[in-house]
User: Fold this.
Amino acid sequence: MIRTILWADDAVVLIDQKALPGKVHYLTLTDWRDVVGAIRDLTVRGAPAIGVAAAMGIALGALQLPEASVPETRRTFARLCEAFAKARPTARNLFWAIERMQRRFDETLPGGIAEVKKALVGEAVAIGEEDVEINRRIGLNGKAFIRDGDNVLTHCNAGALATAGYGTALGVIRAAREEGKRLHVFVDETRPVLQGARLTCWELVHDRIPATLITDSMAGFLMAQGKVDLVIVGADRIAANGDTANKIGTYSLAVLAKEHGVPFYVAAPLSTIDRSMADGSGIPIEERNGGEVRELHGVRTAPVKVGVYNPAFDVTPERYITAIITEAGVAKRPCGPSLRRLLRGPA
Assistant:
């Protein structure tokens, strides 16, 4: 299994996703500031993976906490968490992980700084291991939606590289494949950073799952030809009513799928759900540097002085989503009440 990120010998070890598909290169980070940088510059990306990276980065920073008064230790730790919170604004898992690490810090601080360090490392490692298991459960809950012989369309990368391992949308595909189902995956290249072409295709080739790369603009034509049986994507933040933020271009796919009668599924852990946000209108959308659009791997493809609008995500309204697949079960439309039941857990 591909492991994207892990803790080893008091360091954060992660795949440099910017080097893929040409080279599989693991980075060993011993300074928490480098982890912040890796999140910001897409060395590690994908909402669950960002959450795991943040937890491990905070643990790394905690190891460097000096002996100090309780108030000073609190202030130092708060600044550490704030640095991670500013790295990327849209991914809910980032903030979920920070909040979980903050709670563990508060629980253990009365026991002293040594206890804090030990507890935060343990919590970060647990978050990583739990993520892999959560993804496997998502796969098990979603595999029934893929029939033998289906053609699946996916956008961006919601695989092992977007998580600690196994994947969300690709986790569903992997689970169906492991069950013995024959399937084929159409992969959007996902402009402007090409996560589909570089990362999703690399994972599918690695796992020997039949796949075809297409440009983002080809998806509607494929649906019109009847070549797409379902769409499965991941998510970076899900509002309480089911509105979903995911990589830019997802909304267009959802509208096309609705027009052509193609089921549209979102696969994501419960930690991606933002219960404080009633609907998708309030989800913060990260806007990235225009150079990502003007250039392709360092080669200029547009005039340097042309203006660029480069939102990294868009929001798909709940009405276009057939179901949201989580580790606790499947939320079918209307997604809001279904999500609330899943968040409450078994009765």
